[in-house]
Structures are given as C-alpha cells and as structure tokens.
C-alpha cells in the first residue's frame, strides 16, 4: 500500500511538472517570440495577453461549475490536455499567417487559443490536483513544488532552445502534453479519504444553487477577488514584459535572453525549496497574512525594478519571486478550504482567483503595454507598484481570517521522498 501511495505521489508530481513545463516555456519566452519573431510592438503584444484573459473570463465560471460537478472525474482535465497537444502545430503553421493577415485579429485568435491551455486551463489543473491530493491525504504544497522544478528546467533549457530555433519552444510544449496525457490516464483517485464522517458527508452532498449563491454573499469572496487583482494580476502583468525590459540593458539582446533564462531557472529552483517549507509557515501565520506578505514582496519587487537598474539588482528583484510565488499559491488554497465550502473549492478557485485575475489582466495588460510605450518601463513600474498596495490593502480590510486548520498529511510519504 505504501508503494502505491508513493507511486500516486509521483504521478501527481509528474502531472504538475509537465503542465508547468508548458506554462513556463510559454510565459517565459512568448514575450521574446512576439517581439523578435512576430515583430509586434508592446501594445499589440499586450493585446495577445488581453485576449488570453478575456477568453479565460468566459471559460472560468463554466469550468468551475463543471469541475465541482465532476468531482474527481478527469474529463475536463482531459480536454485541457487535448488543447495543449496542438500548441506546436498552431504556432508553427497558423499564428504567424494570422498575424500577417491582420495583427489585431491574429493577436486575438492566438491569445484565445493559448487561453484554452493556459489562463483558462490552469484553473482546471490546479483545482483538480488540489482536490485529488486532499482526497489522497497529501499536503498540496509538497506536490506543487514539482511545478516549480518544471519552471526551473524550462527556464534553463528554454533559453538555449529559443536562441537556436524560436519555434522549438512550442513543439516542446506539445511533447510535454503527450507525457501529461499519459500520466492523467494512469491516475486513479478514490473518494475523499477522511476520518471525519461529517466532512465525508459534506464532500458527498450534491452542490445546489443555494450553495453557489452563498459564495457571492460572503464578503470574504469579494475581498479575496480584490486581493487577487492586486497580487496575481499584477504578478502576471509585471512578468509579461519584464524579459524585454531586462534584455534592454544588454548590448547583445541574445546574451540578455540567455542570462535572463539562467536567472529565471535559479529563481524557480529556489521557489521549489520554499514550496516545501511554505505550508508549515502558512499554517503558523494564517493564509490571509500569507497573501498580504506576498503582496508586500510584489510591491518591493516592482518598485525596486523601477529605481535600481543595475543588472545584478534586476536579477535580485526577479529572484524575490521565488518567495512570493509559494506564499501566494499555498495561501490561496488554504484560504479557500478554510473559509468556503470545500465542495465548491473549484468554483471559488476559478472565480475568486482565476476569474478575478483575468479581469485584471484583461484591463491592465493593455493599459500597462500602452504606458510602457508612452512613459517607459521605469515610470510605469512606479504606477504599477502603487496599484499593488491599493488593491492588497482594500482586499485585506474586507477579507475575514480563515478558520484555523491543521490538515492531515502523509508525513511518512513526505519524509521518505
């Protein structure tokens, strides 16, 4: 039985690894590809990311309700994997021709397709694996660290691949999707394993319309949404164009791209280490405080990038994300299961986190892209850092603290790995 649990743990880890390998390759190198290969300016590139966000806005409410109805069934996850399989062919044979026909039209179509896999699809992946790990009695953060390891791997090999052939990045995504599909097919998860009969009964009780409406009546849900705009939205918007800002300090752009990929690789490997420790830390300080701390770190990271522009300092601000990301991800999951009905964890995650984040990205990707063009990166970063503080403060004032929970985890498994 212990061997079976070990195998399932590695299966979860492998799913995270290969999904976030795709995620990291796309988001680390798509800005470079749009700039160097597709020859788009920052405003049109921002439109690609806005289109990704708008598509996610349409998908997230549907995805959340469907996944909560499906529970531990894998159909929706399988659809996301199917979309991932076509990333390589789409970018190689369709994206550039569409952009040549009309840059705006191509940006919208390309962003919409990528959203099926990424901005929209990530909610399905995160919600399904979080529920499955909880059902299998694992600590979510210990499995999620494989996503960080994937990010480090992608950043390390992606720089080499991109310099040699920019399209190879996207074909690597297709290969990763094949492996992800095999791991998903092999996964077997039983119903929630818990010693509490009340908890088991709650998990198995069908979700009703009243349950869903109660989420919207909870003030913490709206505070959580505002907090996510301040942290998750601004995190993504900041990282969208930061690679181009970073490489602008190099005489040779290719050299800058390679250096950035190495720094990003170091950052995500450090992030993986923090991912192991963060669940314990969040259990001590509380998930709400964890989110506030993540917002403060993001504020420092953005503001620092505006004023301290030596390459080594910009590298340091990037590496700070290795602390910020685990705090944000673990706090989000623990806050959702600590404040809201666990049967609706996918719905709350999709709407409170992803939907709210995509609303923010839809607006701020284009706004910041335009500001970069008119004001430059440094002045724009000062404005963005102030936005972070405002949203985080308002969200924190509205949100209630979560119920104190000490989740049961498979300590023997964690120790043995």
How would you describe what is shown here?
With 417 residues, the protein is mainly alpha-helical. It contains 18 helices and no strands. The chain has helices at residues 2-37, 42-70, 75-85, 87-101, 103-117, 121-135, 140-164, 168-186, 197-204, 209-217, 219-247, 253-285, 287-307, 311-319, 321-339, 345-375, 377-398, 411-416. The protein has a single domain, classed as Up-down Bundle (Growth Hormone, Chain: A), CATH 1.20.1250.20. The chain is globular.
- The percent range for strand residues is under 5%
Percent of residues in helices comes to: over 70%
Task: State the secondary-structure class.
Answer: mainly alpha
How far is it from the N-terminal to the C-terminal residue, by CA?
16 Å
Oligomerization = single chain
Subcellular location: Cell inner membrane
Keywords: Cell inner membrane, Cell membrane, Membrane, Transmembrane, Transmembrane helix, Transport
Organism: Metabacillus niabensis
Pfam families: LacY_symp
What is the gist of this entry?
This protein has 18 helices and no strands. By secondary structure, it is mostly helical.
Q: How are the elements arranged and paired?
A:
Elements lengths: L1 H36 L4 H29 L4 H11 L1 H15 L1 H15 L3 H15 L4 H25 L3 H19 L10 H8 L4 H9 L1 H29 L5 H33 L1 H21 L3 H9 L1 H19 L5 H31 L1 H22 L12 H6 L1
Notable characteristics:
417 residues; mainly alpha; Growth Hormone, Chain: A; disordered C terminus; MFS_dom; LacY/RafB_perm_fam; transport; MFS_trans_sf
């Amino acid at each position: 039985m212990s061997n079976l649990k070990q195998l399932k743990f590695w299966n979860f880890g492998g799913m995270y690894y290969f999904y976030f390998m795709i995620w990291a390759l796309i988001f680390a190198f798509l800005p470079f590809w749009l700039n160097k290969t597709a020859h788009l300016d920052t405003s049109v590139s921002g439109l690609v990311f806005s289109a990704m966000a708008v598509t996610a806005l349409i998908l997230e409410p549907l995805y959340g309700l469907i996944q909560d109805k499906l529970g531990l069934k894998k159909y929706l996850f399988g659809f996301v994997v199917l979309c991932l399989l076509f990333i390589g062919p789409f970018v190689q044979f369709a994206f550039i021709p569409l952009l040549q026909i009309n840059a705006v039209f191509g940006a919208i179509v390309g962003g919409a397709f990528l959203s099926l896999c990424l901005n929209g699809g990530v909610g399905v992946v995160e919600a399904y694996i979080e529920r499955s790990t909880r059902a299998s009695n694992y600590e979510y953060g210990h499995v999620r660290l494989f996503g960080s390891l994937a990010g480090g791997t992608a950043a390390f090999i992606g720089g080499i691949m991109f310099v040699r052939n920019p399209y190879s990045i996207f074909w690597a995504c297709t290969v990763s999707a094949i492996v992800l599909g095999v791991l998903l097919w092999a996964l077997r998860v039983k119903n929630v394993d818990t010693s509490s009969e009340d908890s088991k009964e709650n998990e198995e009780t069908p979700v009703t319309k009243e349950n869903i409406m109660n989420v919207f009546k909870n003030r913490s849900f709206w505070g959580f949404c505002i907090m996510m705009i301040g942290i998750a939205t601004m995190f993504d918007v900041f990282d969208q164009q930061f690679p181009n800002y970073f490489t602008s300090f190099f005489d040779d752009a290719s050299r800058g791209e390679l250096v950035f990929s190495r720094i990003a690789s170091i950052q995500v490997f450090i992030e993986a280490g923090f991912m192991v420790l963060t669940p314990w830390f969040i259990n001590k300080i509380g998930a709400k405080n964890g989110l506030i701390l993540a917002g403060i770190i993001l504020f420092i990271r953005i503001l620092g990038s505006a004023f301290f522009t030596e390459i080594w300092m910009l590298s340091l601000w990037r590496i700070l994300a290795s602390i910020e990301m685990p705090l944000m991800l673990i706090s989000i999951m623990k806050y959702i299961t600590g404040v809201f009905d666990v049967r609706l964890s996918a719905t709350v995650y999709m709407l409170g986190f992803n939907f709210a984040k995509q609303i923010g990205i839809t607006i701020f990707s284009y706004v910041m892209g335009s500001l970069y063009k008119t004001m430059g990166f440094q002045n724009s970063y000062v404005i963005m850092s102030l936005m972070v503080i405002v949203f985080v403060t308002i969200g924190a004032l509205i949100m209630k603290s979560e119920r104190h929970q000490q989740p049961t985890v498979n300590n023997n498994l964690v120790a043995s790995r």
